[in-house]
Design a protein that fits this description.
mainly alpha
């Protein structure tokens, strides 16, 4: 919008009036009107919970990937063993074809083994990330619980202090025994 770039004196009267109707931060220092104010520790706990949930999901995906890669490697190894296990006499062109297929299958086995190793590395990394996120969440939950206990203790002490002050004021009043 071009009128935001112009100084207020250059604005048309309706644009100036529209800008002046907007609530300012000085009028509402706690935030936008109508929004709930959240406790900062609760927000931190919620963010840590989301991070932990995402890390747990990534860990599950990595575990599934490792399982799939291990199955793929086992299938490739079985294919190679069935090709190499055929020891009957074959014509030369079929033997050459099987040898080439065997080499290709051996390369596929090596490739599957490399992929499995990479997946296991990712699994270890994701497990470490999940453990870190779980520890962070646990620490933030403990901090929030400690803060809640402190707040409850402070509130109980304040209530007790007010009650003591009321009782002291009642005992010091001149017409304490008078009834109405």
């Amino acid at each position: 919008r071009h009128h935001r770039l112009l100084p207020a004196t250059c604005l048309r009267s309706h644009a100036r009036a529209r800008l002046s109707r907007r609530p300012s931060r000085t009028l509402y220092p706690l935030g936008v009107v109508g929004m709930k104010r959240r406790h900062p520790l609760a927000t931190l706990v919620r963010l840590a919970s989301l991070r932990e949930r995402k890390a747990r999901g990534d860990l599950g995906l990595a575990q599934r990937d490792v399982k799939d890669k291990a199955e793929s490697l086992e299938i490739r190894r079985n294919e190679l063993m069935t090709m190499l296990g055929d020891s009957r006499p074959l014509p030369a062109h079929i033997a050459l074809t099987l040898r080439i297929q065997g080499l290709a299958t051996a390369e596929l086995v090596e490739l599957a083994a490399v992929e499995l190793d990479a997946s296991e590395t990712r699994l270890r990394t994701d497990r470490r990330k999940w453990q870190d996120a779980a520890h962070e969440l646990e620490a933030k939950e403990e901090l929030e619980a400690k803060k809640r206990r402190e707040n409850a203790t402070t509130a109980a002490k304040a209530a007790e202090r007010v009650l003591d002050e009321l009782m002291a004021a009642r005992h010091q009043s001149p017409n304490r025994g008078a009834t109405r």
